[in-house]
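Risk mitigation, structural track. In case the binding assays with pyridoxal-5'-phosphate fail to produce interpretable data, a predicted complex structure has been prepared as a fallback.
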Amino acid sequence: MDIKVSERLEGIGEYYFSQKLREIEELNKQGKKIINLGIGSPDLPPHPEVVKVLQEEAAKPNVHAYQSYKGSPVLRNAMAAFYKKWYQADVNPDMEVLPLIGSKEGIMHICMTYLNKGDEALIPNPGYPTYSSAVKLAGGTCKEYALKEENNWEPDFKALEEIDLSKVKLMWINYPEMPTGKQASKELFERIVAFGKKHNILICHDNPYSFILNEQPISILSAEGAKEVALELNSLSKASNMAGWRVGMMIGAKERIEEVLRFKSNMDSGMFLPVQLAAAKALSLDKEWYDQLNGIYSERRKLVHQLLDVLQCKYDKAQVGMFVWAKIPSSYKDGYELSDEVLYDKNVFITPGGIFGSNGNGYIRISLCAKKEVLEEALERVTA
Ligand SMILES: Cc1ncc(COP(=O)(O)O)c(C=O)c1O
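Fallback model:
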């Protein structure tokens, strides 16, 4: 059949991981038993009470209908309460909260809501690859801004001011940053909010990692006047161990929520009510939940640090989030070379930093979503 894919898919490659996973599968078929330290999908279960709510609610006869596009009030209230409790942010549950089917879909929805052909969006390099795919799919153009170690992985505002910003409508930011593990300060958010106001750019902050190995979760809403110019995405995928459940949220001014809802309500028809009620339970968990989770991640991180020492990589111990980001020794051309060497010689897969953008070329990223025994085995293999 002679059918062409749409032009909007041109230049949107297959996600690096899906390609690499196929290669790993092939190697496994040859009996290699590859340890995959690439992907950030939590391996631990959600809190048992969360699963219990899902089970009990799903057994009821009257919970199976389509749900409101805006989400259940129970979930919206839980999201607003979560923002108050952890980020000290006042959010109106009826007007300033939008439950999402994962924050990845929110990235697409925001781009589809605001970008016309020719509009530009600022994208972090290195950063989560979905920002650039979503901008391109929506018809916009990506304008990368550099994040560099010597600049403490913060945007270089002087350089940003020097470029032509007249067509820039959105700026994607993500702190704690994936892949660099950099945490934002309130001052950094204030500078970004001021930058957005000055240039009339909608700041889109993606915040899924603020509870992982981090004692001070922070939201962009902590910056004065942020709601006038910023949206924030959050997610239950990482800190609630619910990646497969697909629950996220968008927080922002009433007008922005309504605008994004205009697009979103044409894409999906709400979320299964028992999932929403269980998500509300997850959002109400107290510090003990995050402490025990971080206890496990911090044990794992020690092993990852040892593994990186063996590979003679350098890393900052103050990183937060679900990965460790490390600079490779200068004997390697780039992270791809090191990653391939470790994959083919040691049967361990680690992510080359270059997939997150050219400024990640000299780095690799290791996920903490592997059990201690698996990391011990990886360490043994790499050391041998
Ligand atoms: C920076 C970043 N944002 C968003 C997501 C997507 O999260 P969700 O599962 O909520 O769609 C990820 C997942 O890997 C991520 O790393």
